[in-house]
TrEMBL record:
<dbReference type="InterPro" id="IPR050366">
    <property type="entry name" value="BP-dependent_transpt_permease"/>
</dbReference>
<dbReference type="GO" id="GO:0055085">
    <property type="term" value="P:transmembrane transport"/>
</dbReference>
<dbReference type="Pfam" id="PF00528">
    <property type="entry name" value="BPD_transp_1"/>
</dbReference>
<protein>
    <submittedName>
        <fullName>Putative ABC transporter permease protein</fullName>
    </submittedName>
</protein>
<keyword id="KW-1133">Transmembrane helix</keyword>
<keyword id="KW-1003">Cell membrane</keyword>
<comment type="similarity">
    <text>Belongs to the binding-protein-dependent transport system permease family.</text>
</comment>
<feature type="transmembrane region" description="Helical">
    <location>
        <begin position="12"/>
        <end position="31"/>
    </location>
</feature>
<keyword id="KW-0812">Transmembrane</keyword>
<dbReference type="InterPro" id="IPR000515">
    <property type="entry name" value="MetI-like"/>
</dbReference>
<feature type="transmembrane region" description="Helical">
    <location>
        <begin position="192"/>
        <end position="213"/>
    </location>
</feature>
<feature type="domain" description="ABC transmembrane type-1">
    <location>
        <begin position="66"/>
        <end position="256"/>
    </location>
</feature>
<dbReference type="InterPro" id="IPR035906">
    <property type="entry name" value="MetI-like_sf"/>
</dbReference>
<dbReference type="Pfam" id="PF12911">
    <property type="entry name" value="OppC_N"/>
</dbReference>
<feature type="transmembrane region" description="Helical">
    <location>
        <begin position="115"/>
        <end position="140"/>
    </location>
</feature>
<dbReference type="GO" id="GO:0005886">
    <property type="term" value="C:plasma membrane"/>
</dbReference>
<feature type="transmembrane region" description="Helical">
    <location>
        <begin position="69"/>
        <end position="95"/>
    </location>
</feature>
Length: 268
């Protein structure tokens, strides 16, 4: 643990990530106006960051729009990591034909761009529910996580402590849960940070393209789309959500890089 705390990159990344997350959680209570309040004419400057295309306060909308995108992104990351780790570890530990079949199917899934698959599914519904976006984004992460998890697990399965546990008659499930998975922590934490970064970008992109769970609600991705035509007139309506998404992305990337660096040094 001390090695992680000594990593400046990791500490800065964690601080940025937590700061943006905290802002998203408490933002609605800090907002100077309500999420739907009209405070002036569209694209004018009666408030600190001006108004959006309906005359709503940009700052208030940004503060109110973070919860949904971060929650959906977090749940999608957890889902994708869970499914991907399961597939990767099973393939590495079982080997043989099961490994070949699952990995070839995994390669097929990797050939398709994540956002393309998401738009293909979402275009079939009028207004997607939040669980649907979580499911789509999470499943799109699973093949990439599975590839990483399998690679990490393959270096652990042949080790002596795994062989000893098998020789003592431990069940396969117990060997996986108590011998293999605990030794995969650092690489999977780094991968989780990257997946969270991609989830934020993907969920924001889905909102930007008009597939929002609530078209009238504040949403960082949707705000960019709604106000992009007046970028030169009132840039803050677009720039403020972009800046926050960018800062959060930097934070999660620093966090993932920090975990990777510490793990590469053996946690010393």
């Amino acid at each position: 643990m001390s090695a992680y705390l000594r990593s400046g990159r990791l500490v800065v990344g964690l601080a940025i990530t937590l700061a943006v997350t905290l802002l998203a959680i408490v933002g609605p209570w800090l907002a100077p106006h309500g999420e739907y309040d009209i405070v002036g004419r569209p694209f004018t400057d009666p408030t600190l960051f001006g108004t959006d295309y309906l005359g709503q306060d940009v700052l208030s909308r940004v503060l109110a729009g973070g919860r949904s995108i971060l929650l959906i992104s977090l749940l999608a990351t957890v889902l994708g990591m869970g499914i991907g780790i399961l597939i990767g570890v099973v393939c590495a530990y079982a080997g043989g034909w099961l490994d070949e079949v699952l990995m070839r199917l995994n390669d097929v899934a990797l050939a398709f761009p994540q956002i393309l698959l998401a738009l293909l599914v979402l275009s079939a519904v009028d207004q997607p529910a939040a669980w649907m976006i979580v499911l789509i984004v999470g499943l799109s992460h699973a093949p990439r996580v599975a590839r990483v998890a399998r690679g990490v697990a393959l270096s652990i399965v042949p080790r002596d402590f795994v062989t000893s546990a098998e020789a003592l008659g431990e069940s396969r499930l117990r060997v996986v849960l108590f011998e293999v998975l605990p030794n995969m922590g650092a690489p999977l934490l780094a991968e989780a940070g990257l997946r969270l970064t991609y989830s934020i970008g993907m969920v924001a992109g889905i909102g930007f393209l008009g597939f929002s769970t609530n078209p009238g609600a504040a949403d960082w991705g949707q705000m960019i789309n709604e106000n992009r035509l007046a970028l030169l007139v009132q840039p803050w309506a677009v720039l403020l959500p972009v800046i926050i998404i960018g800062i959060f992305t930097i934070g999660t990337n620093l966090l993932a890089d920090g975990v990777t660096q510490v793990a590469a040094k053996g946690g010393q």
